[in-house]
Amino acid sequence: MSLQSINPVNGKIIKTYKEDSQKEILRKIDKVNIAWLSWKETAFTERSAFMKQASTLLLQRKVPLSVLMAKEMGKPLKDAVAEIEKCAAVCDYYADHAVDFLEDEQIATEASKSYVSYQPLGVVLAIMPWNFPLWQLFRFLAPALMAGNVALLKHASNVTGCALAVEALIADAGFPKNTFRVLLISSKLVNKVIAHPDVKAVTLTGSTNAGQQVAKEAGFRLKKTVLELGGSDPYLILADADLELAATVCAQSRLINNGQSCIAAKRFIVVREVEKDFIRIFKSKMQEKVTGDPFDKKTDLGPMARKDLRDELHQQVLDNIKAGAKCILGGKIPKFKGKHAFYEPTILKSIKKGMPAYEEELFGPVALIISAKDEAEAIKIANDSPFGLGAAVFTKDIARGEQIAATMLQAGSCFVNSLVKSDPRLPFGGINQSGYGRELGAFGIKEFVNIKTVYVP
Questions:
Q1: pLDDT band at 335 (very low <50, low <70, confident <90, very high)
Q2: Measured between alpha carbons, how far is 129 from 70 in angstroms, rounded to an integer?
Q3: CATH number for the domain including 276?
Q4: Based on the domain organization, do 262 and 157 belong to the same domain?
Q5: 219 and 247 in a common domain
Q6: What's the rounded Cα separation, in Å, for the pair 128 and 135?
Q7: Which of 72, 83, 217, 228 is catalytic?
Q8: d(Cα 206, Cα 395) in Å, to the nearest integer?
Q9: Which of 171, 291, 325, 393 is in the most buried spot, having the most CB atoms within 10 Å?
């Protein structure tokens, strides 16, 4: 069996990788677990030095790593560079703060000493997607290693080159051998890895269906999981919103990473009073974006990561038009690029409850306009979703926007007059079918530790 990396611009095979045998899988798990026995005893100062070196190497290698991402999943080169810089930042963040996050917490009781200690769990399996090949990995890997855990990675097969590049970078940064290893396996072997007794926890970023399968297997084995799954993030445009700002941010968020982001804006819920004006400005902002070769500096949108994903998205668009949605921009496969994975920026309006798009996630450059009669209905529509990853509200009344974000929108991250984004300093994750648990911040590093009570009479 083999894994293939295919260039979504031209459909050509970049490289074929031989899958790990059962024997090799077990060997890697065993070696990583052995590495943990010494790594967990390593001082924070040493862990931090290795992590700082990883940050340095990321910046030194950002050109070849950016080129690799552009080839493997079509990310525009300028976006790939920004992703690598963000990975370096998360390495620095945890190198600087892990020791404080995991410091023993003294608790006053009748004992002479009682406190909470944060101890590493051991081998953590990460199952990661292709859309942010390095960022999705480092936002897990940096806190996991700094907490004293070791890691195994099952990456998406089309970005195997990125996975192996990170494995090499971690080794070159000086981390002890086998603290991080890549498993070259298909999805069908994931359950066997989860079941292995040396694997103590699992984190997955991916679809809701994939999360359900991982949660089922890990739950049966009584192993901790963190799941960051799909989303259909609502952006509320209220009657008093700055429409120029709102349209600019909404277009940026919808088309970020070629429209392939869990926390991209997907549903634009517009109060009827400003709907016509918002659509006019928003459409012009979407039309301004340049689709083309990821290596061209002018390109805003490259291809989607795979042709089958593009075709699936196009079928969703057609199904919703058939159900009554109106396509006011795009909705077509570019003729000159049709044999590959490109898709036009698209806007569907008149989306109503009962249409597939009202509840489904459209993972690509397709924006959905939903009309609301007023603020109250806009909030109700925003929360009428099986997902709960991110949300945003646009209004000139900042205090009201904060109130809506903090107490009325049901999502893991809620922003005011800004696009939803992850930040190393802030916890990130969702609710409902968008998953559970948190990455990043102080909360993220504590997901995969034993929160241990120590009592001394």
A1: confident
A2: 15
A3: 3.40.309.10
A4: no
A5: no
A6: 10
A7: 228
A8: 32
A9: 393
Residues 6+ positions from 37 with CB-CB distance below 8 Å: none
Looking at the fold, whether 220 and 282 belong to one and the same domain comes out as no
Query: Of 297, 295, 315, whose CA–CA distance to 307 is shortest?
Result: 315
Task: Give the type of residue at 299.
Answer: T
Q: Which position among 262, 275, 360, 439 bears the catalytic label?
A: 262
Contact 179, 41 (CB under 8 A): no
Q: Is 359 a catalytic residue?
A: no
Distance CA 145, CA 40 (A): 9
In a domain, 421, yes or no: no
Tens digits of residue pLDDT in 21-67:
999 999 999 999 999 999 999 999 999 999 999 999 999 999 999 99
Q: CA–CA separation, 201 vs 221, rounded Å?
A: 10
Torsion of Cα atoms, 254 then 258 then 260 then 264, to 10°: -20
Please report which confidence band the pLDDT of residue 180 belongs to, taking 50, 70 and 90 as the band edges: very high
Q: Are residues 180 and 321 in the same domain?
A: no
Angle between helices 135-146 and 44-60 (to 10 degrees): 160
361 is catalytic: no
User: Would you say residue 423 lies in a domain?
Assistant: no
Q: Provide the domain count of the chain.
A: 2
**Between the CA atoms of 235, 236, 239 and 241, what dihedral angle is there, to the nearest 10 degrees?**
-40
Based on the domain organization, do 299 and 437 belong to the same domain?
A: no
Round to the nearest angstrom and report the end-to-end CA distance of the chain. 58
- The answer to the question of residue 422 being in a domain is no
The residue to which tokens 């009325």 are assigned: 408
**Which structural domain range is residue 316 located in?**
233-416
Query: What percent helix, strand, coil does the chain show, rounded to 5?
Result: 45, 20, 35
Q: What Å distances lie between residue 18 and 125, 183, 360, CA to CA? A: 20, 11, 35
b/e burial code for range 331-368 (CB count within 10 A of at least 16 → b): bebeeebeebbbbbbbbbbebeeebebbebbbbbbbbb
C-alpha–C-alpha distance, residues 67 and 454, integer Å: 49
- Dihedral of alpha carbons 73, 207, 254, 276, sign: positive
Question: Which CATH number do you get for residue 46?
Answer: 3.40.605.10
Could you read off the pLDDT of 303-329 as tens digits, one per residue? Answer: 999 999 999 999 999 999 999 999 999
Q: 224 and 248 share a domain?
A: no
Distance CA 111, CA 103 (A): 20
Same domain, 94 and 165: yes
Q: Does 298 fall in a domain?
A: yes
Residues 390 and 444 occupy one common structural domain: no
Surface-to-core class of residue 288, CB atoms within 10 Å of its CB (0-12 exposed, 13-18 middle, 19+ buried) = exposed
